[in-house]
Design brief:
Distance between the termini of chain A: 39 Å
Strand order of the largest sheet of chain A: 3-7-8-14-11-10-9
Radius of gyration of chain A: 25 Å
Structural class of chain A: alpha+beta
Oligomer: homodimer
Helix content of chain A: 25-40%
Largest interface: A-B, 54 and 54 residues
Number of strands of chain A: 23
Number of helices of chain A: 15
Shape of chain A: globular
Strand content of chain A: 25-35%
Largest sheet of chain A: 7 strands, mixed
Chain lengths: 476, 476
C-alpha cells in the first residue's frame, strides 16, 4: 500500500519548473503515454474520456449550426497540395508520405492528411452543382499528421486528433459570417464547457492559415503566461474554390464559384485544460468534461453500513446523470484524497459512520479546497448544483488570473519586459511586416490576435502612427 | 422538379443484377462516394450517421463490459510486425508504408496500421506490471488500412473505419471466456440493433485471424445468399503476450505471461444492413440505427394549416426522441414517397387537410408497405411503438429468409448446387485441410463457421468419418 502524500511529492513544483510539472501531470494521471514512434502519443482512457466529452459538446453545437458529420480519406495525392500555392508552401515540409503499398511502389506518392481542404474541396466540386446545393456544411473527426521536430503530449505531436469543419457558400458575406459564427461557437464552448476564457479575433497576415483570406483565432492564457492557440476558423474566400473548381449554376443559370471556410480544434484542448486550471496538486478538470465529476471516499470503511451507504449514494448520483466513482480500495483516506486531487476530480464526497448517522456528507471542492456539509437527502441535486458552481467559479478564477496579466507597452523594451514576466502585452502596430518580424526576433513573442476596437498612438517598434493594437505573447 | 418514379427507375433490378443494385443504392442514397485514390471511399453524412448510431450502441455495451476507449498511434514500426510469425505473414503483403516524412527519408519505414495488436501489445507490456493491473480492457475507434486489389464501398476498401478492442487477462480461461462474451455482445447487437440474424461460432484454422489461437465469427446471409463476415472476436492465447512481453508479477511474486484477446467490427456493417434488408425500392434501414426514423410528408401542403400541423407533429416527435424529418420541398407527394422509400426511412407519415380534420395521420411502413391510420393525439407513443414493431419484424423477416436458405449436403455436388442456388450449405467435414481446400477450389465456397452441436455421418469431400459440421457459403 502506498504512503500518504506519495503522489503530490512525485509532481514537480508548478512554480519552479512548469514544463516538468506538465510532463509529470500528463503521465502520472494516466492521461497519455509516449508512443513507440518519436513524437507520437497514446491517449489513455482517462485522457480519451475528456476528448469524448469535448466531442459530445461540440457535436451538439455543430448540429444546431446545420453542420453534418462525414468521413474523408486519410491519403491525399501529393499533387493536390500544389493546387493552392500558399497551402503547399505551408504544409509540404511537414507531410508524411506513403510511397509503397501492397508490396509495390505507388505511381504517385500519397500524403497522410495534415488537414483536408484539398480532398474535401475535390469532393465538394462534385457535390455542388446548383445554388440549391449551398450552403454545404460538413465536418469530420479524424486523425491528422504533421511531422514536427519538437513535440509534447497534446500540445504538439506528429499525429493528433481533431475535428475539421468545411463549408461552401454562395456569397463572400455568408461565408465570412459563418466563419465568425463558428468562432463564436468556439468561444462559448471554451468558456462554458472548459472554463477557459479566450481572446478572439483576427490573425495578422504573417500568422494566418496557409491559403486563407482571414484566420480567426482564440487565444488562451496558460498558467505560465504563454498563449495557447486553442482553435481557428478560416475564411478562404475563393482560393480553394478556384483551385478545386467548386462551381455551381446560380439562380439565373450562370456559372458561379463558391466561397469556402474551414474551422478546427484538436486534442490540444486537453493541454489547454491542464495548463489553465492545474495547480501544485495536479490536474483540475472542469465538471462539464471531467470523466469523473465526483468521487466518494468512505471514512472508516470497515464500520457497518459505510460501504452500503456509499454504494447507495453512488447509485443515486448516477441515476441523476452525475459521473461518479466510489473508491473502495484498501488505501487510506489521505492517500485517496491526494490521488483524486491529482487526477483533478472536481468534487470529493467523504462519507463516514458519523456523517451517515447525522444524514450528512462532507463535500470538498477541488478548485477552492473548501469543504461543506450537505444533507444526504436530496444529495443528487446538491452535488449537481455544487458542480455547476465549481464550473462557473473556475471560469471566473481563470479570467481573473488572465486579466491581472494583460499589460500595455509602448516600446520594444516594454514588450520584452511584459512577456518575460509572463504577460499578454498589448501594443500599437504600424501594420508592416518588418516590425512584426522584429518583435518575434527580439522578444520571442508573436502577434497572437488583433485587439479589435482598441487604439494606441504609435507602433511600439518603429514609432510611426499605429494602425492597430496587437496582443503579443510567447506561445505554445 | 423531378418526375414521379424517377429514383426507382434509376436503381438496377435487385433480382437481375444484385452488384449493380448495391452500387446504385449506396451512391444514389448518398451513403458514400468514391474517393480520389483508388479503393478509398468518402462516407457522406447519411452513411456516417448510421456509423455514429452503431458507435453509440456498441459503446454502451462495451462500457458495461468494463472496456474503456483510448487512442493508439496510426504508424507502427515495420519491425513490430515481424515479432509474431503468423501475424506478419497475414498482414505484411497488404500494408501501406510511410518512407518519408518532414522532408527526409525515415531511418525505419512505418506501417499504417492494418490492425493494432502489435502497438497495443507494446503499450500493454508497459502498463501491465502486477496481477492488480489485470484484466486490462481497452478499445479504440479508428481508421485502418489494408491495400486491397478489388474494392467495393463499405465491403472492402483500402481504408476503413472500425473499432478494435484489446484485452489482457491473467488466465487462459478468463481470456477465452471474454472473447466469447464479446461474441455474444456482437450477436445481441446485430439482432436487436441492426435486425440481422447471425450464425456465430469458431472459424477453421485456415480461416482464422493471423496470430490467433481461436477466431470466433458472426456470419450474416445477404439477399443474394452470400455470407458477410460481420465481426470477429479472437482468443490469442499467449502468442502476442510472448512476442511483446506482456508480463506481470503474480500474487505469489512469480513472473507470469498474460493471455490476450482482440475483437472488432467495421463500417462493413453498413454494407451488411444494405444487403440484408434492401429491396427493389432501395434501402431499408432498421429504426435503431436509421439516421431518420420517420419522415412527415404533407398532402396538399398549400391548404391552410397543413404545414403548421406537420411542424407541430415534428416538434412533438422530436421531443419524444424520434429522429424525424419534415419534407416541405416543392416536389410532389408521389416523388417524395419514392425518394424516402429509396433512402430506407422506416416510417412515413402522410398528413393532409382531411387527416388533420379527423385528428388522424396515415403511417406507412417501409418494410411491409402497410398503411394504417393512427390518432394524432398520442402520436409520439404510436410512432415509437410502430418503430419498435418494424424493428422486430425486420429481424424476423430476415431470419425467415435465411432459414429457408440453409440446406444440407453430403457430397461436393450437393455443396456446389447449394451455394449456386444462393444457400448456406451445412456438410460434414473430416477435419483435414486438403478437403477444406478442395471445396474452395471447386465451389468457390469457404468454411464460414463450425455448426456446433450438429453431427453428420461423413465428410462431404473424402467420405471419411465426419468430425465436424461446417457451414459453407460463398462470401464477401
Amino acid at each position: 500500500m502506498a504512503k500518504e502524500g506519495q503522489f503530490v511529492e512525485q509532481i514537480a513544483d508548478i512554480n519552479a519548473d512548469f514544463p516538468q510539472w506538465y510532463t509529470d501531470v500528463v503521465l502520472k494521471t494516466k492521461l497519455v503515454d509516449y508512443g513507440p514512434v518519436k513524437g507520437t502519443m497514446v491517449i489513455r482512457p482517462y485522457g480519451y474520456a475528456i476528448w469524448e466529452n469535448i466531442q459530445e459538446q461540440l457535436n451538439a453545437r455543430f448540429r444546431k449550426a446545420g453542420v453534418q458529420n462525414a468521413y474523408f480519406p486519410l491519403l491525399i495525392p501529393m499533387s493536390y497540395f500544389t493546387k493552392e500555392a500558399e497551402h503547399v508552401e505551408g504544409f509540404a515540409p511537414e507531410v508524411a508520405v506513403v510511397t509503397h503499398a501492397g508490396g509495390e511502389e505507388l505511381a504517385e506518392p500519397l500524403a497522410i492528411r495534415p488537414t483536408s481542404e484539398t480532398i474535401i474541396g475535390t469532393m465538394m466540386s462534385k457535390w455542388v452543382q446548383s445554388y440549391r446545393d449551398l450552403p454545404l456544411k460538413v465536418n469530420q473527426w479524424c486523425n491528422v499528421m504533421r511531422w514536427e521536430k519538437t513535440t509534447r503530449p497534446f500540445l504538439r505531436t506528429s499525429e493528433f486528433l481533431w475535428h475539421e469543419g468545411h463549408t461552401a457558400h454562395a456569397s463572400a458575406e455568408e461565408a465570412e459570417e459563418f466563419a465568425l459564427q463558428m468562432l463564436g461557437v468556439y468561444k462559448e464552448f471554451m468558456e462554458n464547457c472548459l472554463a477557459i476564457p479566450v481572446l478572439t479575433g483576427r490573425k495578422t497576415e504573417k500568422e494566418r492559415f496557409a491559403g486563407a483570406v482571414a484566420t480567426y483565432t482564440m487565444e488562451a492564457m496558460m498558467r505560465d503566461g504563454k498563449s495557447l492557440q486553442s482553435g481557428t476558423s478560416h475564411y478562404m474566400g475563393q482560393n480553394f474554390a478556384k483551385a478545386f473548381e467548386i462551381q455551381y449554376q446560380g439562380q439565373e443559370g450562370n456559372l458561379q464559384t463558391a466561397y469556402t471556410t474551414s474551422f478546427g480544434v484538436s486534442t490540444r484542448l486537453i493541454g489547454a485544460i491542464i495548463m489553465t486550471h492545474g495547480d501544485e496538486r495536479g490536474l483540475l478538470l472542469p465538471p462539464v468534461v471531467a470523466p469523473t465529476q465526483c468521487v466518494i471516499v468512505p471514512i472508516a470503511a470497515r464500520k457497518g453500513g459505510v460501504v452500503e451507504a456509499c454504494e447507495k449514494l453512488k447509485t443515486e448520483l448516477e441515476a441523476a446523470g452525475v459521473r461518479v466513482a466510489f473508491d473502495n480500495t484498501d488505501n487510506s483516506p489521505g492517500w485517496k484524497f491526494n490521488e483524486w486531487e491529482m487526477k483533478g476530480v472536481p468534487v470529493r464526497i467523504e462519507l463516514g459512520p458519523r456523517d451517515i448517522e447525522a444524514g450528512k456528507m462532507v463535500c470538498a471542492r477541488r478548485d477552492t479546497l473548501e469543504k461543506s456539509e450537505l444533507s444526504l437527502s436530496n444529495a443528487a441535486e446538491s452535488v449537481k448544483s455544487l458542480l455547476a458552481q465549481v464550473q462557473k467559479d473556475m471560469l471566473e478564477a481563470a479570467r481573473a488570473r488572465r486579466e491581472s496579466r494583460i499589460v500595455y507597452a509602448d516600446d520594444m523594451a516594454g514588450i520584452l519586459a511584459g512577456v518575460e514576466e509572463g504577460n499578454f502585452v498589448k501594443a500599437g502596430w504600424c501594420g508592416c511586416r518588418a516590425c512584426e518580424d522584429k518583435i518575434k526576433e527580439e522578444t520571442a513573442a508573436t502577434a497572437r490576435v488583433y485587439a479589435e476596437g482598441e487604439t494606441r498612438e504609435t507602433c511600439a517598434v518603429c514609432g510611426e502612427k499605429a494602425k492597430h493594437v496587437i496582443v503579443y505573447a510567447r506561445a505554445y
